[in-house]
Write a structure and sequence with these properties.
The chain is α/β, with parallel strands linked by helices. It has 21 helices and 12 strands. It has a 7-stranded mixed sheet, with helices on both faces. A 3-stranded antiparallel sheet has the order 9-12-11. Strand 3, helix 9 and strand 4 form a beta-alpha-beta unit. Helix 3 crosses helix 5, helix 7 crosses helix 16 and helix 17 runs parallel beside helix 21. This is Aminotransferase.
């Protein structure tokens, strides 16, 4: 490919550019392609999936009890009365099965730790597997919400005291959550064309791409992290949030692609802003990688009144195909206050929008408007994540809650961090993880790597000749390795994102060696000049 073609492709979203890189990397049939471009993990949680299957078997037996006399493939909605006793009888025939043991533990846990009825929880779970009812309530099943709330609080709060209760909306993964949030902010006039949206950059590319779309037409304000400070926000950048024209602040924490959690100092400074000059600021925190961090605390905990929390089960539990996510919002929140502060003219517009749902549309909470808007309001009664999905989400949450010794969590952390070490050692450089780093991804600063390996003059030549994107194409063409450009995530310096979640240890060693080989070839070009 010539420089013109590469320059054109460099303007694409990193995930669209990835498809071209995959095409190039896969063009050699005699060579294995190594795709470290996407964050889909190659590990997953098995125990809650075993529980799902065993619960399904029990659910089928329960359904068949209702119409067993027909003997024609009919089943009915299981009876709630006596369901715990019937499950105990079922489990006695599967005492050594890990899935059954998990369910028995869960039934005990929800009563002892969460104060929920064992009978009602098990009945909800059985019917959820069968998918024999509409989602009721449409926002989230009652017991599922309480269990997932406990899990979210455990993972997002750390040792921060809980300040009031919060509600959840179960969504089709974190990406649906992002879509619904921007959509409802717009429909409810909390953001309008020309308003400013601040983004904590570098950031997951869709956050960059949604605000300027026609229909939103929002102005993006960069709140840029400082690489030299382990990807934290400098005071000068956070001060931009004091501008009242900035309506929303979106941040991914831990960051994507730098993969660093916000420090306590960063959290405190943002909290000072929303508790001081910007009590009206809306924060959207995407915390999907929080479960890979040590001692993680979310803005949802530090700035509870101002923050919408997006969490996805995709990465930690290896469940990208399940499409499981939630939006969390505290009951006392700045969004409902902003709705209340709208002009009478605006309120009348929104009265018409939601009047089919309630006789008092102005009392409809923002989180319930999210649900309604997700189904164009008119189909609110059939909104909601499918019940089997909600059940698997609940079982994942229970897995996290009952992992008292952090065996699964520690194993997941060790896995990605060891891959980080392997990658960098095979590039010929010392692996360095700061205290806030989680290593789900790593952002290879190509200029710094070039300087570390061959000196400042070579690094300057590499940058001046725009070799960063060329590096990605050359890597794909010559070695079959696919990485994503940091530029697509609003990274300033020439860089490449590597997912440390989706390949084998041997593969990361190969990527390190191949990357070094291509840089060696560049150095040969430089020395030849």
């Amino acid at each position: 490919m010539d420089d013109l073609d590469i320059a054109k492709l460099a303007t694409l979203s990193p995930f669209e550019l990835k498809d071209k890189l995959i095409e190039i990397a896969g063009s050699d049939a005699d060579r294995m392609m190594l795709n470290a471009g996407r964050g889909n993990p190659n590990f997953l949680a098995t125990l809650p999936r075993r529980a799902f299957l065993r619960l399904g078997e029990f659910a089928m037996q329960e359904a068949e009890r209702s119409y067993s006399y027909l003997n024609s493939g009919f089943g009915g909605i299981p009876e709630t009365e006596g369901i715990v006793q019937r499950f105990e009888a079922y489990s006695n025939h599967h005492e050594s099965d890990p899935g059954v043991t998990f369910i028995r533990s869960a039934v005990s846990y929800v009563r002892d730790q969460l104060g929920l009825s064992r009978q009602e929880f098990l009945s909800e779970a059985v019917c959820a597997f069968l998918g024999c009812n509409y989602p009721v309530p449409p926002r989230m099943l009652r017991h599922a919400e309480e269990i997932v709330k406990a899990y979210v609080a455990q993972e997002m709060y750390g040792l921060v005291p809980k300040q009031g209760d919060f509600s959840l909306f179960a969504t089709e993964g974190g990406t649906a959550a992002m879509t619904y949030i921007f959509q409802t902010l717009k429909h409810n006039l909390l953001v309008q064309a020309g308003d400013k949206v601040a983004l904590g950059t570098p950031i997951f590319s869709p956050y960059l791409e949604i605000p300027p779309l026609p229909g939103y037409d929002l102005e993006v304000v960069d709140i840029r992290m400082e690489e030299e400070d382990d990807w934290q926000f400098p005071e000068t950048e956070l001060k931009k949030l004091e501008d009242p024209a900035v309506k929303v602040f979106c941040v991914v924490n831990p960051s994507n692609p730098p993969s660093a959690k916000l420090s306590r100092a960063s959290l405190d400074r943002i909290a000072d802003i929303v508790n001081g000059p910007r009590k009206d600021l809306i924060i959207v925190t995407d915390d999907v990688y929080g479960t890979f961090a040590d001692d993680f605390v979310s803005l949802f905990a530090r700035c509870p009144r101002n923050t919408l929390c997006v969490y996805s089960f995709s990465k930690y539990f290896g469940a990208t195909g399940w499409r499981l996510g939630v939006i969390g919002l505290h009951d006392d929140n700045a969004l409902d206050a902003a709705l209340d502060a709208l002009s009478e003219k605006a309120k009348k517009v929104l009265d018409r929008r939601y009047m089919s749902l309630t006789t008092e549309p102005r009392s409809l909470r923002f989180i319930d408007r999210l649900v309604a808007d997700s189904r164009a309001v008119a189909l609110n009664h059939t909104a909601g994540l499918s019940l089997p999905q909600q059940l698997q989400m609940t079982l994942f949450a229970l897995n996290g809650l009952m992992d008292i010794d952090d065996r699964y969590k520690d194993a997941a952390k060790r896995l990605v961090r060891h891959r980080f070490d392997t990658l960098y050692m095979n590039m010929g450089t010392k692996p360095e993880l700061d205290e806030n780093d989680i290593a789900y991804y790593t952002l290879i600063d190509l200029k710094k790597l070039a300087e570390r390996l061959y000196g400042e003059a070579f690094a300057k030549w590499f940058e001046d000749n725009n070799k960063a994107t060329d590096f990605l194409f050359r890597l794909a063409d010559e070695t079959g390795v696919v990485l994503l450009p940091g530029k697509g995530f609003e990274v300033v310096d020439p860089s490449a994102r590597v997912s440390l979640a989706n390949l084998t240890e041997h593969d990361y060693a190969s990527i390190g060696k191949f990357s070094r080989r291509v840089l060696d070839e560049y150095y040969g070009d430089f020395a030849g000049d």
